[in-house]
Amino acid sequence: MNDVLTQLRGRAQRLVDDLPYFAEHCLKIRPKAGGLVPLGFNRVQLEVHERLEAQLRDTGRVRALILKARQPGVSTYIEARFFWKITKTAGIASYILTHSLQATENIFGMAERFHENLPEPLRLRTTAANARELHFDGLDSGIQVSTAGAKGAGRAQTVQLFHGSEVAHWQDAAVHMGGVLQAVPDMPWTEVILESTANGMGGLFYDMAQAAQRGDGDYILVFIPWFWHDEYRRDPPEGWQPPEAFRDYAEAHDLDEGQVYWAWRKNGELAQACAAGPDEVCWLFRQEYPATGSEAFQAGGHEAYIRGELVLKARRALSADQMHMPLILGVDIARGGKDKTRIVDRRGRCAGHACDETIDSADLMDVTGRVAKEIDRLEPEAVFLDVTGLGAGVYDRLRERGYKEVHAVNFGSKAREAQRYANKRAEIWARLAGWLLDEGGADIPDSDEWQASLCAPGYLFDSNSRLLLEKKEDIRARVGFSPDVGDALALTFAENVKSGAGRRRPRPQARPSFGFGPAAQWRDH
To answer: Distance (Å, rounded) from C-alpha 217 to C-alpha 213?
Structure first.
């Protein structure tokens, strides 16, 4: 008997402590096929759970943005999480704000279904149960649902748990968010979870996601790629072979045959809307079913100069030892405003592993000193510094101090291959793209920031059929950030640099060694 009681107490305690266990044993959902089934968390829901629980352990509260593809079960997870909390804790108010009346009805219906199908010993008495509110009398806890755009929506009294659903699609999002966040006290155990599919660039959710990705503020960004959802797959017919674009796409994201066939079919449904061929991975598919965070937020029809699959492949690569290759630094100097100076290293096929430095300072003397410090630390063979705008002052000061390995690069100057490239910036980005394409493979940090920066610039061809990269100010206006990482890395391709002994003191005798051979030779370095 004692063993039985111990087991029962253990199970009861696990219902209190373990949300996945509680969901599987106590909550019922209506699947797409109909009927009622226990809520066993899928891969997406478990990943979200782990990320939120980690933040709760680290900070004592949850502040999270969840960027997702369509219908992976994120809203269901959040409702289960909040229902679990309000049915075991007194005095907890949960508030959900959705983007549409239909979504409001669906989410509240889910909460009612949870309550109606609880095991009898766990079912609580309600004093309010209507189309918008479920209140548990004995605990004085409850859940309320409303629609963004409705009068007074987002201005509840005091809320401990807040779920914003499809925030990128809210009407007057900033107004609603300003109201509801005032209702959530800045206290331990409170939770604010905002989830959405993307809705292009700009807007509240986009701005908050970009800030979270930079590490600014209290919110973490949780990205859910479409292929984590088990339902997004379909067995191909016998003999089907994916088009080349989808072979590259599948390789970049480690997709199996069923996933890539599903993606090809879904892409075909969307391709006509974005004027793309069915065998291209169109921008609308990438937005609705993103594989990376940078794919989700993209302007309609925007075509990146560097494809995301190339960058992702480099993020996953582990290149062989490159210590025999010359160490080169690229320094992109901030132009003021929200821009930041970035220093990036490259040694052969590897980049960003010895130096990936951000300098957030408008003081050029401070910037100069910090660039000099990195040069002294790493002793590179060459440093290529952007002198467009404020960079000229940094370059002059470094040369005055004896840093002869520092070389000026003007993005707007004439390209060495002027018949192919409209300016120097287009030429060095083309070299960067070729480096990523090279069969030898490239190795960069596994960073969403690097991915977003390298895929940010668009391109066109001028009247002389020369490559012209999208202007930096236009990129900033379109996506809300400047591609500083990409420009810094591209600067390492400004000229060919021979392997040598590197810089050695005394400084006045230091001379980096350069080789200015045919442009095709750059791949060797």
So the answer is: 10
Look at the block and give the residue holding tokens 């000061």.
Answer: 397
Phi–psi pair at 91, nearest 5 degrees: 70, 35
d(CA 151, CA 146): 10
Asked whether 147 and 100 are in contact (CB, 8 A), the reply is yes
- CA max distance for the chain: 89
The per-residue pLDDT for 131 is: 56
Strand order in the sheet with 191-196: 126-129, 133-136, 141-147, 93-98, 161-165, 191-196, 62-68, 220-224
pLDDT, tens digit, for every residue of 181-200? 888 888 999 999 999 988 77
> Do 319-524 and 18-224 have the same topology in CATH?
no
Instruction: Name the residue ranges covered by the structural domains of the chain.
Output: 18-224, 244-302, 319-524
pLDDT confidence of residue 324:
85
Burial label for 365, CB within 10 Å (0-12, 13-18, 19+), is exposed
CA neighbor of 446 nearest in space, from 321, 314, 265, 322:
314
What is the CA angle 395-476-449, rounded to 5? 80
User: 0.90 exceeded by the pTM?
Assistant: no
Chain center to CA of 212? 9
- pLDDT at position 500 is 61
Q: How many CB atoms lie within 10 A of CB 340?
A: 19
Residue with tokens 């190339």: 310
**Per-block average pLDDT, block size 10, for the chain (525 residues)?**
58 88 92 85 94 96 92 91 90 87 85 87 69 77 81 67 90 80 88 88 82 87 91 92 88 91 90 70 82 72 76 80 88 78 94 91 90 95 91 93 94 92 94 86 87 86 87 80 91 86 45 32 35
Closest CA to 139 of 162, 158, 122: 122
| Distance, CA of 313 to CA of 134 (rounded, Å) | 48
Q: How is domain 319-524 classified at the architecture level of CATH?
A: 2-Layer Sandwich (3.30)
pLDDT per residue as tens digits for the range 388-404: 888 899 999 999 999 99
Q: Report how far apart the first and last C-alpha atoms of the chain are (Å, whole number).
A: 75
- CATH number of the structural domain 18-224: 3.40.50.300
Q: What pLDDT does residue 524 have?
A: 36
The single-letter DSSP state of residue 524 is G
Find out whether 226 and 292 touch, Cβ atoms under 8 Å. no
CA distance 435 to 3: 66
Backbone angles phi, psi at 442, to 5 degrees: -120, 155
